[in-house]
Amino acid sequence: MTSVTPLLLATAGGLLWAFGIVGKRLGVEGATNANRAARIPDVQCNEFLGSAITIFVYSLTTVISPSIDLIRMGGDGWSRTWNNPEWNQRLPWIIGCGLVSGAGGLLGTLAFAWSAGSSSALISMIENGVYTTTGALIIAVYFQEHLKPLTYVGIVLILVGVVLAQSSSRGKDPPACADTESESESDLEPMMKRSDSEASDSVIAPTFLRMRSVMLAAAAGACWGWGPLGKKIGVHGSSDADKHDWTTCTYFIYMMCTTIVPLGRILTVDSGSRRESLRDRRFRFLLMGTMVCGLISGCGGLISTFAFSLEGYFSGALISTVENGIYTISGAVMVAVLFEEVLSKRQLLGAGAVVLAIILFGLA
């Protein structure tokens, strides 16, 4: 009888991992509000810095779960895995996939900031829909797993979802400020306008930023798609005695590498800008929420990595699809509920196309 344990673990991992979406959304909410005090030409630069700080804090806290597991393993488990030639030769792939995924994390968090809270649930679905597609394709190509026709139909639906998300952004822009000194400033001025609801702290993003956030989300998903490959390479073919050790070491190395690109971005910014961002009390408070979500998400990532080591009858592409599908839907729902976001009809159609694509991936 075929065990469904890998799929159950992938489902649990996806649910816990979805808290990461909430954590990143919390961080950019604080960064966006802090940036209102900045001069208009500096808004995009400051949002980039706020996004880098958010994803760095998030990625760093996700390392805590595997770090605790490493301590529980003891030095013998670490050295046994590290000195194993079969696992050691996979390190370049694990590190490389972690670096690319870290760049995707920065782009995805910036896409949240540029969507300005008006459609971040949809941005999340676009990111993760492309991520699901890319991850399954890369794993299938690397491990020579044959994809079913339904998979290609799902890919088309993902593309349809991206197109619908972009077209939904082409609404009427808020009126530009008449006293702008340049075209750049007139484009960015609407970003400083508050939303109609006094209860909401989000801002209204100008059309060009909302469109750019969709493209950034797609690029982030494509970069994230290398993550499942790195984790699967790290645990593929492990023996029963080595599964736990290989899983922990792989996930620890992978997650540490995802912090490098955001950290590099933070260090390249002048110290005055860093102080200005971190001085905002609300931003620091919301970063605490990002850290909590990162801890929960780190547990989910560890579980999902372990699921790859148990794949057996189920292909790695299927496990990746189940995990990422649950992650995508759960994360988008939590963001929409917590931040009271309402999607337009076209946005709902785009989200529906992404959900249908994920279902088709699972059936395939």
From TrEMBL:
SUPFAM superfamilies attached to this UniProt entry: Multidrug resistance efflux transporter EmrE (SSF103481)
Residue intervals passing through the bilayer: 6-27, 48-71, 91-114, 121-143, 149-165, 285-308, 314-339, 346-363
Keyword Transmembrane helix: yes
Domain of life: Eukaryota
Location of region: Disordered: 168-199
Keywords: Membrane, Transmembrane, Transmembrane helix
InterPro entries the UniProt entry points to: EmrE-like
Protein name: EamA domain-containing protein
Annotated organism of origin: Symbiodinium natans
